[in-house]
């Protein structure tokens, strides 16, 4: 929230917005309702506006005796004849939140890390954490003081962890008249990174049912991504840590990170399985990682 009110907000792609959640019937209030600003149940007038209670199918329904309703032969008052059927929005809640555009936020965050002296290195894909020992800077004994595993979906192969599954998301960006994101999907176990025409149609049709002015909006782009899902978020300090080349307990230089018990043991923190809530949980989970490293004596 502080970032959204700062001079860095535009560069970081962070802005405030009002969020509306609609349901066909009353639901238990979310456990997190005390966290965001201005949480409240939906005003009945908003529900009436969204559900459009006077909507009738194009052409109208036959009244008793075969007479047509006023909708027959034309549009009902206040709507187009081809206006899509509204969604059953009979209950909901709203709150103030923050929108974070990942394509702008991640480069901004990277720049913050580099400004504080952090160095980002690209290395060949690893098939196991033990392969860290084979990297030149680690094999020479100048490796890290700790390792944080934030490999997300890659942990299916890296560890391996069979509890990690992809949650496929697809969204559509349209012009209406500004750039608006519509969607999306949450398909557990779907590895496809290709745009699915059927998903696009469902997204466009569903959003038009909620906001008829979106019908016929120009499609600007599609986007597909895989969220790193897991049966349960894993955030923990691994017992035994990770053994890397370096100075052993006897003070002698040792090598080989995968075989034997030579080298040095460094703390290993696992932080993955956030699903579609990565940006939401990032700062809180990062704080927990720091606390775990402090407990291990690294910080």
TrEMBL record:
Chain ranges of the FAD dependent oxidoreductase domain: 175-290
Q: Which UniProt keywords apply?
A: FAD, Flavoprotein, Oxidoreductase
Protein name, entry field = FAD dependent oxidoreductase domain-containing protein
> Which family would the database say this protein is a member of?
Belongs to the DAMOX/DASOX family.
Renumbered residue ranges of the record's region Disordered: 58-81, 241-264
Protein's UniProt keywords contain Oxidoreductase: yes
Cellular component terms (Gene Ontology)? cytoplasm
GO MF annotation terms = D-amino-acid oxidase activity; FAD binding
Against Pfam families, the record matches this protein to: DAO
Q: Which organism is it from?
A: Gonium pectorale (Green alga)
Q: Which cofactor does it need?
A: FAD
Q: Which SUPFAM superfamilies would you find in this protein's record? A: FAD-linked reductases, C-terminal domain, Nucleotide-binding domain
Q: One biological-process term from Gene Ontology?
A: D-amino acid catabolic process
Q: Where is the composition biased (Low complexity)?
A: 58-79
